[in-house]
Amino acid sequence: MPILLANTAIAIFMFLIGCTLLVSILMRRSYQFFDKSKKSRVITGLERLPRPQNTWDGAYQDLTATTDRQEVEMSEVARNLMGQLSAKTIVLEQLIGDSQRQIERMEKLLERLEQTPKKR
């Protein structure tokens, strides 16, 4: 029984030491993170770059970002043009169908006109 109590006491003592160590590490990290007086703080790129004034400034002179943005805009323009072209193609096909029907109707009328006897 005394050995069991000794093992339990050692386990509790080790657990408390681990918790203390963990709390001290977390406190030190949070203190370093929230300490505003340190000058060696790392500044990320987003903190020092100005806000964009127009749509192209958002690329911040990055060639790949500018190229990607232009590629997206070109694909949008191409999609819009393809839509307009498709709509005009449909209208043209309808007009061709209508004109073909009119041609057939006029040919039938000409045939009927030629078949009828001429009156003098």
Given helix and strand content, the structural type is: mainly alpha
Radius of gyration, taken over Cα atoms and rounded to an integer in Å: 42 Å
Count of DSSP E strands? 0
Low-pLDDT segments, ≥5 res: none
State the order of secondary-structure elements, H for helix, E for strand: HHH
Strand content: under 5%
Largest sheet: none
- The proportion of residues forming helix, as a percent range, comes to over 70%
Distance between the termini: 141 Å
Helix count from the secondary structure assignment: 3
- Estimate the mean pLDDT confidence: 80
Shape: rod-shaped
Task: Explain this structure.
This protein is mainly alpha-helical. Among the domains are: 1-35; 76-120. It contains three helices and no strands. It has helices at residues 2-34, 45-48, 63-115. The termini are far apart. The relative contact order is 0.03.
Descriptive tags:
0% strand, 75% helix, single chain, mainly alpha, 3 helices, rod-shaped, 120 residues
Per-chain topology:
Elements: H1 2-34, H2 45-48, H3 63-115
Give a brief rundown of this model:
The chain is mainly alpha-helical and 120 residues long.
